[in-house]
Predict the structure.
Amino acid sequence: MCGIVGYVGRDRAADVLLSGLASLEYRGYDSAGLAIICDDHVDVTRAVGKLVNLRTVVEAAPPDGTTGIGHTRWATHGPPTEDNAHPHKDCSGDLALVHNGIIENFVELREELVGAGHDVLSDTDTEIVAHLIEASYEGDLTAAVRAAIERLDGSYALAVVHRAHPGTIVAARKDSPLIVGVGDGEMLVASDIPAVLKRTRDVMVIEDEEIVTVTASGADLTGLDGEPRPDRRMRVDWDVDAAEKGGYETFMLKEIHEQPAAIQNTLRGRMTSDGTIQLSELDMSPEEVAAVRRVLIVACGTSYHAGLVAKRLIEGWARIPVEVDVSSEFRYRDPILDEDTLVVAISQSGETTDTLAGVREARARGARVIAISNVVGSSITREADGVVYTHAGLEIGVAATKTFTAQIATTYVLALHLAQAKGTMSRDEVARVWAELEKVPSMVQRILDDADSIAECAAQYTARHSSLFLGRGIGVPVAMEGALKLKEISYIHAEAHPAGEMKHGPIALITDHVPVVFVATQGRTYEKVVSNIQEVRAREGEVIAVASEGDEEIAKHADHVLTVPLTSEELSPIPAVVPLQLLAYHIATLRGCNVDQPRNLAKSVTVE
Ligand code: AGP
């Protein structure tokens, strides 16, 4: 999730752009850069690390131009280096471009452009777009951008400047946010409203597949077809803090609502046109993947719960035995590993000390290690043999939400990839699962759009001191994640168990003051879960049930039903966890807890 800004007006562009980039700092980044149109050239300055590093370089010799673009990079392709930092230029050096998004077909485009003689300098997908525009440019910058984006598959918010067009910025978007700030004798483009608020509160939101040509006097908005689009100017009364949260009260709530996009971006490009799963980052040949005899997953906290989901998927689809270990145990238990064992380290931050130690332990014992992480270039990703990145964008709230569902989406890809290599699923079977998987983002969106009942339910449980979360099968890690969410942000004691374990102890905890949350979505053990619910109700227990749409039975047994779209048992964890995230969120908020920064917790646990 990068940030882009652009400015054209009377003032020195470098000052305005640095200020705009500072407002996007909450999006996190590992490098930044500016491109300013000067009299006879495009001046590009880039720096790795925090924005202050770029500011130091620019302010030492600030370019005077009044038209420019800027970028904060949150790496998705290629490590955070100066060469990979934006803006990127074309061969001529006359054109510079910044981009937020993922270009899926950049490899084939790069081959085409290199074959045509273009000199590509970076590892990024973004630079390819600069050369693509160059290849189409015949004097009309907007037309060249239009021609180039017709060739792109994937997501983009672009801003482009050209030496021959001082005073002009061309911008376009698809699936990544882009707005225009309308000033008095000046105009801005940006990823987010915070970047323009210090200059203007009049903004236009650019829609998908629209192109906007911006000069100091105004903006010309057209569709990909070249037809004019209406001026959708609006007045924003947000303060900067609210704007950084996209208008949500907290980063956690914003990130819960970003899950459809996080899942979609994580799945993007994983299914090729011939029906095979694409996981080239594993850096494993089909033969090496087929030779995997055992999988061992190491992770902590929420990532451990994603590993438990992965166990059921890989064992069910690829018929390979899977063990899942908390990293702090794995690293000290003298694990038995060999070259047929694939170790998978799951860590959204890529910095968790126990998981990093697990990676080192596994590699020292000869196992191949792959990482699933959300942060490009993090320690764990640098030490693993292969890395599969989630594309959830920076997660600021300490409680993991969008990175969890993005991790699960990635484990679907991994499990299907293993099943194809092992021949345990046919291409048609994989295609059927994939078709259902692609509906999951819209399922999550439907839950988010109809979440009032979850907030109403939460309001009845803010004064409780303890709770139970129960499930069966793939519902067990979902119950565990629901319990972790509640305890870590509301400080209410919450524990999770397989529902079948109740009679072996936990049922002693049932009273009319200990709410019991059941994951009761449709699956092979649904009837067993209903029986467990009845056992709780027989002891005056209160039941909150997460259930599938169309389930008429569950309402007879539960005090509250949190309904989610019906899907297959294997695909149920993502829809099923979203109500539990929101339940924990609303209970914690009503209790006055700081959900973004819960007491005693850190976003990344870099100590033992
Ligand atoms: C989850 O909400 C917590 N923030 C915590 O359990 C977290 O999942 C755990 O520390 C692992 O972090 P990682 O994914 O960055 O390794």
